[in-house]
Every structure is written in structure tokens, then in C-alpha cells.
Design goal:
33% of the residues lie in helices and 24% in strands. It contains four helices and four strands; from the N terminus they run H-E-E-E-E-H-H-H. It has helices spanning 4-17, 72-77, 82-97, 118-122; strands at residues 27-33, 36-42, 47-54, 57-64. The N and C termini lie far apart (94 Å).
Length: 124
């Protein structure tokens, strides 16, 4: 026998699970973390962008919303995005700890000749 109630229940559940149709209220959470600035942004399409800046170096990563029916701050407090944040911190620290073999802070780069102004070029 066909159960109409369970059929409608399954259809409603399908609609609720498809989060691509939802628009989320954008949210932003900022905090200082390990000597740098961490910004976590929930976009209206459900994508989470995470920015980490330290000593002038910024690294960015995006993640899909993992628990769309949970408050964004609750997800952050439970460590849902900790793996992404840890990877960003490692990348920024790796860049800060590295150095170039071509550019050194102690080496003074030569200055180049000034370009002629546009009014001097049109006077000819």
C-alpha cells in the first residue's frame, strides 16, 4: 500500500537538505590569533572565507558551509573550520620564516631614473 504521509515527508526533507536554494545572512567574526588577525566571513551563498594576516602577509582560504542549520559562531566555537585555519597559519608562518636569495633587507636597491612627466612629452 502507498503511504502518502511518508511520501510528503520525504519530499519536504529533500527540500530542506538542498542548501543551495537558501540565502544566508552574511556574518563576520574577527579575532587575534597567534600574533595575527583572523577574519572568518560567512557569505550569503553559504561559502565561508577565512583570512589570516600576520606581519603584512595575508593568506586566504574558502570552505563550504559544513552545518548550514547551525549558527555560524557555534560552528566556529566547536572547531568545524580549525583544520582550514591551522593550514592558513602554517602557510603564513612559512612565508614569514623564509627569505629570498635575491632580495635582502640589508641590500639597498638602486633607484631608477624618473620617467618624464606627460606635460614634458607633449611639449615636443
Amino acid at each position: 500500500m502507498f503511504d502518502i504521509k511518508s511520501f510528503f515527508k520525504r519530499e519536504v526533507e529533500k527540500k530542506l537538505i538542498d542548501v543551495d536554494d537558501y540565502i544566508f545572512m552574511p556574518e563576520r567574526v574577527e579575532m587575534m590569533l597567534e600574533g595575527g588577525q583572523l577574519n572568518c566571513v560567512l557569505n550569503s551563498d553559504g561559502r565561508v572565507d577565512i583570512f589570516y594576516s600576520k606581519q603584512g602577509v595575508t593568506e586566504v582560504s574558502s570552505a563550504a558551509r559544513k552545518h548550514p542549520f547551525t549558527a555560524f559562531e557555534t560552528e566556529l566555537h566547536h572547531g568545524v573550520y580549525d583544520d582550514v585555519i591551522q593550514d592558513l597559519i602554517k602557510e603564513v608562518d612559512k612565508i614569514i620564516d623564509s627569505s629570498s636569495k635575491y632580495f635582502r633587507r640589508s641590500k639597498i636597491l638602486p633607484t631608477t631614473a624618473a620617467l618624464p612627466s606627460s606635460s614634458a612629452a607633449t611639449d615636443k
